[in-house]
Structure formats: C-alpha cells, structure tokens
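User: I'm putting together notes for a lab meeting next week and I want to include a structural view of one of the chains we've been expressing. I don't have a solved structure, so I'd like a prediction I can at least talk through. The sequence is below, exactly as it appears in our construct file.
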Amino acid sequence: MIGELLIAATLALTPMAAEEPAQMPEDYTSMTQVEPIGDTQTVRVTEYCPACNSPNGHGSASGVYLTEGHCACGWLPMGSIVIIDGVEYEVVDVCGTDAVDLFVDDDSGVCRCDRNESVEAVIVRP
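Assistant: Thanks for the context. Below is the predicted structure for the 126-residue chain, given as structure tokens.
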C-alpha cells in the first residue's frame, strides 16, 4: 500500500509537458475553401408529370411522393443529386431511358412535358 501511495504521489508531482497547439499547413488559405461538389457532365434531360406517369401519378419507385425537385434516372443511384441550371433535383425514381427525367408537378391531367435536350449538369452521388 505504501508503494501505491508513493507512485500516486510521484505521478501527482511530476510536471506534465504542455501540448503544442495544432499548426496549420503552409498552403492553408481559408477555412471556407470549397471543393467541387460533383462531376460535371452532359446529360439528356426530359420531363414527366402525373399524367404521363400513369397509373402511378405521384408515385415513385422509391416510395417517395413525387413533387418538384424530384427526378427519375436509370443510371444513377437513388439519392443522387443532379444540379441543372442551378436547380437541385434528387433521384427518387427510375426511368427506362438514358435521360435524367425531371418531374413536373402538374395535376391538370394533360401532359405538357416536351423538354428533350442535352445540358451540362453537376452529378453528386450519395
């Protein structure tokens, strides 16, 4: 027991070395530097709506209720984000084409989707 007390007293009286503060790398410029968020590539963009998504209407392959900001894609994983013309779309549905199919929330019962063009898009995979 005396040995344990001596060890405890020795440890209590032994000065501890102060830790050095973390050093920033020499190439550091800012805490707000932003890395590119995804790959930019040319994609074909089409549109679909509840009328042309019949009989599913607002239903999707992932079970998410389709609204503006959702899209379908057969070659990107669910949850991917596609940024087209500065607008973010989340992949929550699948389609049988090579396009990114943007959902247009229109309950008119008449399909007015006519977009079919190639655009630059930023792809962010989950």
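A couple of points you could mention at the meeting. The radius of gyration is 28 Å. Helices lie at 2-13.

User: Perfect, that's what I needed.
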